[in-house]
C-alpha cells in the first residue's frame, strides 16, 4: 500500500518563496520516493493542482466565500471557520502517514499575522499528528522571538508536538532554544529554496540592476506605525532608484508576492517619472513574476540585485548575483552572513539612502570575486540539503529505499524550472 504524504503551508497563494520551498520538497519526493501519494492543504488549491499536479484543499474553510456574496458577516465566517478548520485539519492529517511543512517562517511572525490564523492552523496540524501518529516534519523552517503571548504559546506547542524539526539557520534554532524548546537534536540546513534547480549561469549586464520591492509595512509588533514605516520605505526606495537611473543604470523592478507587490512597484515607477519627466521609459521596467521559475528568469539578466523579500534575496544569491539585502528581521543578517555578504545589509524599516548608495558602489567593485564566492557557497548548500533529504527518508520512510537521484533536467515536470 502506497504511503500518503501531505504538504502543509501557504502554498499557491502568490508568494513565490513559499512555492519554491514546496517545489524543492516535491522534487525530492518524486525522485527519491516516487511511490508516495502526495497532496496538499494549502493557501491556493487551484494553482497547486495546475502547477504541480497534486490534489489540494484550502487551509481556511472561509476561503471559498472570499469571492462570493454572503449574508453572514466576514468576521462571523472566520469565527465559525475556526471550529470547522480544526475538524477539517485533524481529518486531513489522519489520512496521511507523514505531513511536511516545507520551509518558510513557520515559527516566526516577522510579518503581520493574527494568532488565530496561520499560527493556530500549525498548532492544530502538530497536535493532530501527535494524536493520530502522523509524522509532522517542520523542514528548514525559520523562527524568531514572538512577543504576543498567545501566538508564542501556539508556535512553541507546534514545535514541541512536531515529529521532526530543522531550521534554515543557526539564528532560528537559537531563538527556539531561548523560547524554551529543547533543540539539542534539531539540525540546521539551508533554506529549501536553495534546492530548486537553477537555470544556466549568466553574469548578467552590469548596467542592469534588479530591485526587488515589497509592500512592506513593518512586522507583527509595528501595526501602529505601519503607515509610517511603509511611507519611509517607499520614499527611500524611490530615492535610491532615482540615483541609479541618474548614474546611468537601467532598473528592473520586481516583487515576490503576486498579490501585494505589483502596486508598490508601479507607485515607485510613477514617482520617479514624476521627479524626472524626461526619463526614458526603458530606464525603469517592471516585471511581475508569478512563480519562482519566473522570478529566476527575471533576475538572471541583472548584474547586481537589491532586494527586500527574503526569498528574492535567496533567488539572487542562488543565481550568484552580488546582492544587497533590504532586511526587515535578523534572518536577513543570518542569511547574508552564511553567504559571505554580511556587510551588505540595510534595514528596510529605516533605510539610509546614502549608505545604500555606498554599499552599491562597494559591491559593484567586487562583482567578479563575489560571483565566484557565491558559486562555492551554493554548491555547499545543495550538498547540505541533499544530506537533509537523506535524513528525512530515514525518519519518514524507514522501510523504503530511496531511488537514485536524477539530474535536474530529468526531474518531473511539476518540479522543474
How would you characterize this protein structure?
- This protein has 417 residues and is of the alpha/beta class.
- It folds into 2 domains: 4-196 and 381-406, 3-Layer(aba) Sandwich (Rossmann fold); 205-365, 3-Layer(aba) Sandwich (Rossmann fold), CATH 3.40.50.2000.
- Helix content is 45%, strand content 15%.
- The protein contains 13 helices and 13 strands.
- The protein has helices at 16-32, 45-52, 74-94, 118-132, 149-161, 170-178, 226-246, 261-275, 292-299, 310-318, 330-338, 353-365, 367-396, and strands at residues 4-9, 37-42, 55-58, 98-102, 135-141, 164-167, 187-188, 205-212, 250-254, 284-286, 302-307, 323-327, 345-347.
- It has a 7-stranded parallel sheet. A 6-stranded parallel sheet has the order 10-9-8-11-12-13, sandwiched between helices.
SS elements, strand count: 13
- Shape, please? globular
Residue windows where pLDDT falls under 50 for at least 5 positions: 406-417
Strand order, largest beta sheet: 3-2-1-4-5-6-7
C-alpha-based Rg, rounded: 21 Å
Strand content bin: 15-25%
Sequence of secondary-structure elements: EHEHEHEHEHEHEEHEHEHEHEHEHH
Overall mean pLDDT stands at 91
| CATH fold label of the largest domain | Rossmann fold
Count of alpha and pi helical runs: 13
| Helical proportion, percent range | 40-55%
Classified in CATH, the superfamily of the largest domain is Glycogen Phosphorylase B
Please give the CATH architecture of the largest domain. Answer: 3-Layer(aba) Sandwich
For the largest beta-sheet, the strand count, sense and barrel status come to: 7 strands, parallel
The CATH class name of the largest domain reads: Alpha Beta
Query: What gap, in angstroms, lies between the N and C termini?
Result: 31 Å
How many domain units? Answer: 2
- The assigned structural class equals alpha/beta
